[in-house]
Amino acid sequence: MGGFGSGRHGNTVTAEATASYVISISSLAPEFQQGRCVTCVAHFERGKFPILITVDLTTEWNCFVELIHKTRDYREGDRIVIGRVALAWTVPTYGGRRWWFLCPRTGCRTTKLFLPNGGWHFLSRQAYRLGYASQRENRRSYRERRTAAVNRLLVGEGRSTSNIVPPKPEWMRSRTYARWIERRERAGGKASDRRLGRLS
What we know:
Distance between the termini: 63 Å
Strand content: 15-25%
Order of helices and strands: EHEEEEEEEHHH
Shape: globular
Number of strands: 8
Structural class: alpha+beta
Number of domains: 2
């Protein structure tokens, strides 16, 4: 049949490896106005891949998002694809509405739609069988990523990969800081910190 995933075997590919374009429900949330139909344009590849997006909430029992764009299957040239994705909502414990896409292929709720290189339609991660980049990490890379994430939270981007224990931010409670440091140590920074302590 051709297109993304044809004849594909072996390990699961990732959204990053397929250079997937991603549309999240949160990015469209400002357009969710009950009883209205709103159209906007999203751009990928620095404007070279525009997507005309229509959010239609005029009928409560038939809410949907329509996506008009070119296919990413290079064999099809500039063929235009029109896709419609149904919307659903749930009520969180804090009230209001939480919106979801309903994947056209699986029917499952999702907060993100993906269009990988070679694909035609925006679908869920599960529909394209896309894995997460973290699934390809070895143990060391995983520890470094988790440690860096805690560092970014505590001291910002400037020292996100530092091996030194970050100081407690003034705005953070001591118990919260201790809990984050404990997570950092569990993620693999404990041994490095002790090593640095012996050298100082």
